[in-house]
Amino acid sequence: MPGIETSEDSQTGDRGGRSSLAGNATDKALNLLEAASAPGYPHRLGDIAQAAGVPKASAHRILQNLVTTGFLASDGSGGYGPGPRIRALAARITQGCEEDQVMRAELEVLGRRIGHTVHMGVRTGDAVTLLVKVAGPNPVQDSTRVGMQLSLHTTAIGKCVLAGLDDEQLTALVGRLGLPPRTENSLTDLAELRAELDRVREQGFALDDEENELGVRCLAVPVRDVKGAVIGAVNVSTITFLESRETLLSWVGLVRTTADALHGLLG
């Protein structure tokens, strides 16, 4: 993969203000690989470049290299998606992976205890990605799926992640992404978000009260790596007309027990 920093790479005009994320050649290639492999592929060059925070010219050059090496595939009309090497790598990582088995086993126990859908999600760049979903028994379900990427500021998992940032990091992230609403209940003001994150830090859990999807209320407790940094969260998802807010809050202890069991599991 190319390792030469071009004059264009030092500009910010084509990055939508995300210059700090572009990084070195390895960072750019990995960000582009992640963006091109996101659900809904094939993705167009411009969309991939914007999502990865890399100028189009550089993105095109690196994407071509990733196609040549088999990590990505081109559909022949300007679209990109995962190639055979990244699919093989994913299969090798997930097949029989002890960490995945532990996560699923812990979430299955939690799901049985509360009778609702539970997730494990982690931060991937500027979003949350769902790694594990254990669906509840109710016929009415939320719209989530494994591999789905969700907003940080509108989800309970994302709020746990944001609560682990300092104010400088939070301000920079909001400066890049803004606070676009998902529903009429979404937090779209930075001061309100800061106040919400203070509550998350104090309480040790986060709520999404129909902020990401109408009719869905979620509770999440952060999961940390071996150094104590928040990498994601365990989440319980309920349908509002099936379960009350008070009942959801009564499960904080159970969710925390599951989250504690996963601390350090992913690094």
Average pLDDT confidence is 88
Number of domains: 2
The number of helical runs is 11
CATH class of the largest domain: Alpha Beta
| Low-confidence segments | 1-21
Helix content: 40-55%
Q: What is the tally of beta strands?
A: 9
Topology as a string of helices (H) and strands (E): HHEHHEEHHEEEHHHEEEHH
By CATH's scheme, which homologous superfamily of the largest domain applies? GAF domain
CATH architect. name of the largest domain: 2-Layer Sandwich
Strand content: 15-25%
From the 3D structure, determine the CATH topology of the largest domain. Beta-Lactamase
Question: Your description of this structure?
Answer:
- The chain has 267 residues and is α+β, with helices and mostly antiparallel strands.
- It has two domains: 8-89, Winged helix-like DNA-binding domain superfamily/Winged helix DNA-binding domain (Arc Repressor Mutant, subunit A, Orthogonal Bundle), CATH 1.10.10; 96-262, 2-Layer Sandwich (Beta-Lactamase).
- Helices cover 43% and strands 19% of the residues.
- The chain has helices spanning 19-22, 25-36, 45-52, 56-68, 84-94, 98-114, 156-163, 167-177, 190-203, 245-249, 252-262; strands at 43-44, 72-74, 79-82, 117-124, 127-134, 149-150, 206-209, 216-224, 230-239.
- The strands form two sheets. The chain has a six-stranded antiparallel β-sheet with strand order 6-5-4-9-8-7.
- Helix 6 runs antiparallel to helix 11 (252-262) and helix 7 (156-163) crosses helix 9 (190-203).
- It is globular, with a radius of gyration of 19 Å.
- The model is unreliable at 1-21 (pLDDT under 50).
